[in-house]
Amino acid sequence: MASLETPICDFGRAAPDFSLPGVDGEIWTRDRCRGERGLLVMFICNHCPYVKAVRERIVRDTRALMDLGLGCVAIMSNDPRDYPEDSFENMRQVAAEFSFPFPYLLDETQAVARLYGAVCTPDFFGFNAGLELQYRGRLDASRKETAPQTVRRDLYEAMKQVAETGQGPHEQIPSIGCSIKWRA
């Protein structure tokens, strides 16, 4: 399980479109997921300890961001043949167990992860209302273990700034997590 950091934010890069099945039985597109003030695209999975450490915080922060007019979506791009915990059925179970307030989508071909340049789970892409990239950083200081409650909420604060001003912070700390499990 390789641990990787995300690249620095490529400010202004356009959000690629997608059309993917959700665990709710719906087909979701970028434009269907976006909010009036922007879009947060998260690449997550079920088996990664970095994601498991922050699932509750992802739910907490996305609920707050949705209240600010930001759309949020999570995409699972791992190959579940080697990681059965990441199967579509298990995605459904995790989304229900943690009451995901956002669509949880399967990128079976891994094409969307490649379009976005996702490298790890979790990997966060924060876009403004014009769907221009403004954030490519971490959720908070958590790693494989959940950080204390008192840590700075990097993702929430950055995306709140994006919702209010259209611009993300220039200082961003990369996310770290397990590598995306690419098909051979």
UniProtKB/TrEMBL annotation:
Xref: CDD domains: PRX_like1
Molecular function, one GO term: antioxidant activity
Superkingdom to which the source organism belongs: Bacteria
Coiled coil: none
Ranges of residues in domain Thioredoxin: 9-160
Entry-linked PANTHER family: OS07G0260300 PROTEIN, THIOREDOXIN-DEPENDENT PEROXIREDOXIN
Protein name, as recorded: Thioredoxin family protein
